[in-house]
Amino acid sequence: MNECGRCSVKIGEEPALLANGKVxxxxxxxxxxxxxRINDGERCVPQNGIILCSECHIKTTRPICKGCGEFxxxxxxxxxxxxxxxxCFQCSVCQKPLEVFFHQLPNKMCVxxxxxxxxxxxxxxxxxxxx
Length: 131
Fold this sequence. Notes:
Keywords: LIM domain, Metal-binding, Repeat, Zinc. Helix content is 18%, strand content 20%.
């Protein structure tokens, strides 16, 4: 009954870990993807019969940010048919994070309403300047 989930050798009085409904020798609880050792107290995620370390779990289940190319671990923003870190989806003019309401310029750049109207005003002023 107390056989290691990896090597099937009986675990006696030695330290062991419990994960995914099985008992493991301390050195035998490994991530099934990257084979790193999962230590006592570390989070491991049983998924479809395999055990993943927290990093592999993130890599296999979380989207990639369109802005920086990194995995999105916590909060995300969905806009323009992509996923973003909230801090990566930012105004092309002032570089502050964009909120729910923003404008997309013809060149596909996204801007805050204030920045959009400032750009519009500049275009009107420049258009009326004598040549």
